[in-house]
Structure formats: structure tokens, C-alpha cells
Amino acid sequence: MKDRFNLYRFASPATFYPLAGTLIPYFAAISVIFGLAGLYLGMLVAPTDFQQGEGYRIIFIHVPASWMSMFIYLVMAFWAAIGLAFNTRLSGMMAQALAPTGALMAFLSLWTGALWGKPMWGAWWVWDARLTSELILLFLYIGYMALTAAIDDARRADKAGGLLLLVGVVNVPIIYFSVKWWNTLHQGSSVNLTKSSMAETMLWGMLLMAMCFWMYSIAVALMRVRTIMLERERNTDWVKAELGGQVAGGKK
Amino acid sequence: MKSRHKKLALIGGALAVVGIIAALVLNALNSNIALYISPTDVAAGKAPQGKVFRIGGLVKEGSLQRQADGVTIAFIVTDTDQDITVNYKGILPDLFKEGKGVVAQGKMVDNGTFSANEVLAKHDENYMPPEAAKAVGDAHERAAEKKAAAAASGAQPKASY
User: Fold this and answer.
1) Which of the residues are on side Cytoplasmic (chain B) (predicted)?
2) What is the CATH architecture of B36-122?
3) Minimum Cα–Cα distance from A128: chain B residue
4) Could you give the ipTM of this predicted complex?
5) Bridge-partner residues for A247, per DSSP?
6) Domains of chain A: which residue ranges?
């Protein structure tokens, strides 16, 4: 191709579909590599903790899942804003494709947190600000999926869902700063951009697992967005060409 | 101004409004969101009278008393300024330790002590191997000794700790 590289070219489902297909195996492979390295470092190399013993190792799932649950929501809100402002087709599809993974991460975060809370704190659940706001995040994901599923017209579903996503985005800083702003049972953050209060190998294990979760999220979101594209654009020429003769029989 | 830029500005404005509303609501609810109050708050009369609430702080060093039955427990919760004696009957979480964080749920009783029906351990955000924790502890002790030595040699001791 002689023409200059244009990123906006991929805003069209017809061009993004094959690109996503090419990228998926790479993200999946990178996720597996990071996951293996992270689990090795976290489960075998990282030392026992001075107060929690071996039990702290659930952190290698808990923290990456929590981070991703917040980050995926921000990305979805970003796509919602783009979709509402520029009326682009792909944005709504991306938001919908990310939602189940975000919900999974929020659920994992709450579930591993409960499993961790019982032996360490003495309770599966407390209504402190951190836990409650994370639960609200899970409800926002579920609410978004329910709302978009309830509206038949895909573009209108994207608009309504996008509005919910944008209103709900205030919850993300609340989750993140809750341990700073209020008295909570959940301890303060161990890691931020400038400092960490974890031993080095523990921290690296956690960061590798976070990369693993991140790459996994991208891979499954791309898979999902491909099926959403095919479904929504089933009457277009590019989908018919993509699937060859397969759609002809499936039509009612 | 193109219509899409107008829309983007509108979205930005709406987000700001939602953010301000959330901030105001959270600010108004501040005392209800806090999971626990400190012994200082209790001393200042902020504790609900005759109602269940939670107090939080550190378990005072050397304050833990266990009755012969092993489950009747008394300890002092401190925020280094005010102390409250907590009575509790039950099993303590593994991380419950003198000098560490604790959150207890219960009621104030007439003699000024706190009768807890649930005691939770609150650990800090530090994760390190036991050897590192010991090294940190030793360094603290050395610093304390140094301070004591300085105080003994005529320097003005600090009023607070």
C-alpha cells in the first residue's frame, strides 16, 4: 500500500474485523506468557508475608482483577463518550464487547476479596466504602448489559448504555480513593505510581499478573467485538464476503 | 463550532455536573460512610447512644487479657490519644495482635467500656518477608534507643509520641 498509514481507517468494522482477527492470537499468547511468569514469581519465588503467611498470595489474582475491573470501566466510558459525540459505529460495539469481561473482573475481585477477608479480617464481607463501591461497579456492569440487551435497536441501545456508563464513571475514583477518604476495614493501597510498600518480588509477580489480565481482557474483547460486528452488520456486503456462502442458509 | 464538538463539550459538562453532585452527596454522607469511629470520637460524644456502632484503632500493647475459658477477652483500643476498653466473648481473627489495627462492633455499656459482638482485624498495606519485617522492627528499636539516649543526655524530650 502506497497511501500513508491512517488509523481512522480502522474505525470501520469492515477493516477492523480482519485486524482484530490478526491481533487476537498475539494478545492471547502474551497473556499466557505473562501469566506463567507471574504465577511462577508469585507462587514459587515471592517470599512468605510477615503477618499473613502464605494466605496473602491471593493478592496475585485479587489486585489485578480489581485494577482491571476499574480500568475496563474507564475504557468503556471512553468509548461511550466517543460514540455519543462522534456517532461512530465501532465505539458502541467496543463498549458492549468489554462489558462481560469487566463484570467478570469485578466479580473476581469481590469473590477473591471475600475468600481473603474471612481468614485475615474475620469476615467475608463488611459494608465499608471500598467493598461497597466495588459492588456498585459490578451492578453498573450488569445494569449496562441488561440495558443494552433490553433495547432492540442497536444504535439506540448504545446511546442509552453510553449514558449509563458516563454517569457511572464517577464511581471509579470513589473506589480508588475510598480507602483514603474514609475509615475502611480495607487497608490503604500498597502500590501507586511513585512508591510501593511491597517486597520487590511480590510486586513484580503482581505486575506480571496484571499484564496477563490486561492482555487477556484485550484478547477476549476483540473476539467478542468480532461476533458483535458480524451480527450487527449481517446485511452488509463485507460480512457476506467474509463468511462466503455461510449466511445464505442461516437467513430466515 | 461543529456539532460533534458541541456534543463533546456537552458530555464533558454533564460529567462535571455529575461529579460535583456525587462529591456533595458523599460529603453530606461522610459520617455514614465511615466504617468505624475512633476512641477520640467516642470521647467527644460522637458515638450513638444505646446503638450498635463500630470503633477502630490499634490494640494497645500489653492490654490483652484472656479469661481461663479462653474466649472471654478484654483489650484496649487506642488511637494513641484516647483509650477504650473492649470486652468480647468469642474467637479472635488470626491477625488480631497487640499493636495492630482492629475494628470492633458493639455498644457502649454504662461503665464506659465497649461490649463487642464482633471483632475484626485490620492489617496494613505492607507486604514483606519476615526477615525484612524484623529488620524494620530492629531499626525502629535502635531509633527509639537513640532518642532515649539523646533525651537522657539533657535534650528536650518531645511531648507527644
Assistant:
1) 1-7
2) Beta Barrel (2.40)
3) B35
4) 0.79
5) none
6) 30-188+197-250
